[in-house]
Amino acid sequence: MSSDMYALPDRSVTPDPAKAAEEWAKAFYQAKDAINRILPVPSMVLNHLPVRDLREIIEECKEVIKLGEK
Question: Is 6 within 8 Å of 16 (Cβ atoms)?
Answer without folding.
Answer: yes
